[in-house]
């Protein structure tokens, strides 16, 4: 999920830089230079650092980021040195497995490295009070719950209310820039997070069961499997019915359908990527 968020932010920044360099009315051939980030806006990142523990993950991540072009290749991938990465960052996105939060945040020197910084956790089920107990009171802790369609920038992310600070407006802008670049973003009180995890975080997996059943019905009626899946995913009627019951539900279904169409992923694969492995 961390890779999906990083890729989405980079893709969004690159398209912004491209539009600034080449206004729509101008006739041109796309250039090959690295797009420059508009550093005049303090809510936009000027540098990215990604951390992993295994060299194999670093290699895979490098390939994913290289495929994004200039800005993707410029990401600093750090293997096994979270402290260095956090010390050099202003905003930290915590995207490990929930059970790894304690060892990462309680590492020697980590609470000092996080002082006065914005710490955004996407960990399912780990509360703000659990996270704040591991950091100094000056660290601004926020929870976010994205979903798998973030991978194709069709996601839904719910973010908890921001802690009071002098930088609250800037922090809000930073968060909106991150999560709006991978879909929709909405602020909600933390008390709603379990419901959000079930509805939009896990929603794409439930939507895939429905999608697969529709495709199976098509196959039973004689359609080839690939076409049955395409027809089911592109069918908009059920999305409109769901829209009446709330945007988050519709987003999850729409995102799952688009992943099946755009990314060519089978519903079973999408379900699998939603289900966290230990
Ligand atoms: N899947 C989903 O739909 C959603 C998931 N989430 C949350 O996202 C989080 C991640 O889930 P998911 O993306 O599926 O998990 P993954 O296992 O795919 O990704 C975890 C990443 O964290 C890295 N990592 C693990 N330990 C460390 C460490 N100590 N220091 C630095 N990097 C580390 C891993 O790299 P390496 O293996 O090299 O260490 C890997 O790149 C979970 O907390 C989950 O609750 C939230 C919303 C939706």
TrEMBL record:
Pfam families: F420_oxidored, P5CR_dimer. The keyword Oxidoreductase applies. The keyword Transmembrane helix does not apply. Coiled coil: none annotated. NADPH binds at residue 82. GO terms for molecular function: pyrroline-5-carboxylate reductase activity. InterPro entries: 6-PGluconate_DH-like_C_sf, NAD(P)-bd_dom_sf, P5C_Rdtase_cat_N, P5CR_dimer, Pyrroline-COOH_reductase. Residues 50-125 form the Pyrroline-5-carboxylate reductase catalytic N-terminal domain. Keywords: NADP, Oxidoreductase. Residues 190-235 form the Pyrroline-5-carboxylate reductase dimerisation domain. It comes from the Eukaryota. One of its GO terms (biological process) is L-proline biosynthetic process. Belongs to the pyrroline-5-carboxylate reductase family. This is Pyrroline-5-carboxylate reductase.
């Amino acid at each position: 999920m961390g890779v999906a968020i990083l890729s989405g932010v980079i893709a969004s920044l690159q398209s912004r830089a491209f539009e600034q360099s080449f206004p729509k009315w101008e006739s041109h051939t796309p250039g090959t230079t690295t797009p420059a980030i508009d550093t005049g806006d303090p809510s936009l990142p000027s540098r990215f650092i990604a951390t992993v523990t295994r060299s194999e993950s670093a290699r895979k991540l490098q390939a994913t980021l290289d495929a994004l072009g200039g800005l993707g290749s410029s990401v600093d991938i750090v293997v096994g040195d979270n402290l260095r990465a956090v010390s050099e960052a202003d905003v930290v996105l915590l995207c490990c497995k929930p059970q790894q939060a304690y060892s990462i945040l309680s590492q020697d020197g980590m609470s000092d490295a996080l002082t006065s910084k914005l710490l955004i956790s996407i960990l399912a089920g780990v509360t703000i009070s659990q996270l704040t107990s591991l950091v100094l009171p000056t660290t601004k802790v926020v929870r976010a719950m994205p979903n798998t369609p973030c991978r194709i920038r069709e996601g839904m992310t719910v973010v908890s209310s921001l802690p009071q600070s002098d930088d609250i407006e800037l922090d809000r802008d930073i968060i909106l820039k991150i999560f709006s670049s991978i879909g929709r973003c909405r602020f909600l009180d933390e008390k709603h997070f379990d419901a959000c995890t079930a509805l939009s975080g896990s929603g794409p997996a439930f939507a895939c069961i429905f999608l697969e059943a529709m495709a199976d019905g098509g196959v039973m009626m004689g359609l080839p499997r690939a076409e049955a899946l395409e027809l089911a995913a592109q069918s908009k009627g059920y999305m409109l019915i769901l829209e009446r019951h709330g945007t988050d539900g519709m987003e999850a279904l729409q995102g799952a359908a688009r992943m099946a169409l755009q990314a060519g992923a089978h519903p079973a694969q999408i379900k699998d990527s939603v289900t966290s492995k230990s």
